[in-house]
Design brief:
Elements: H1 7-20, H2 25-28, H3 33-43, E1 46-49, H4 54-62, H5 66-72, E2 75-79, H6 86-96, E3 104-108, H7 114-118, E4 131-133, E5 155-159, H8 163-171, E6 180-186, H9 195-205, E7 212-218, H10 225-230, E8 239-244, H11 253-279
Parallel strand pairs: 1-2, 2-3, 3-4, 4-5, 5-6, 6-7, 7-8
Helix pairs in contact: 1-3, 8-9
Length: 282
Amino acid sequence: MEPLLPPELEERIFRISALSNPSMILTLLLVASRVNKWIERIRFHSLIFKLENFSSTIRLIESKNAEFLAQHVHYCCIDILQELSETRLKQFQHILMSFIGLKGLALWSYWPGGVIAALPLDLSRFPNLTLLSLCRSKVPASAFPAPSSNVGITHITWDLSGACVLEELIHRSQLPQLTHILWNIGDDALITLEWERRASLVRILKFPMIQCVLMYIRDMTGTETRYIDAIPELGSPSVVFFFFNQNCDFHDWKRITSDECDCWMHAEAIIRARHQVKQSPV
């Protein structure tokens, strides 16, 4: 049966359906061969690696050639809480190096050194990479590219545990394009922050290239005054607080690719408004 709608409109409808509800992609692929062609690239747009789906995701990726992966894989989330075997790490590194079109990369891991240190992963291999999320990762500065590498990361998300490492990276010019930082903070971790990390956080706020700092806090009260009272430097015009319910799980890939970007846009609008108020004549 021939479609009743123009092909362009039909493609747009199916693409919107797939993007708004990724869990429906496998079902949509079965509708028709033309739909399969439209939707398949969306299936690879954002890849999530978990230990439970590791083998199936690897098989899916290996079914495509390097050119397809380079063109269509834009976001990759590695959410692996357990240490991988050496064989799997090598396999993983080979696959990641084929994602040369990556725009966003999330590396989440509790095990020592984290995924980025174990691979090792050369971030300079991804010329389009601008968003890096390292929540739950214990990442040493040595895991990042040398200052001479062409690293275009502008936005980074990290737990406060990475404050000292991030300060070192900025100081060494290993993240020369960095302008936006989102700190993912739980409960009262900001107030109870140990002195060394607190000092690093304050110094990071003073780097001239940093335009926007988001304090993304799991806090029911949503009162930023107590944090500013604890660390006065957080009253800087470039700092914006976002509070969210403790039941909300920040570690969701949709938040990395959409909600988090919306937060940055919102924060930038707030900062622009602050500067306009400051510069307006009395």
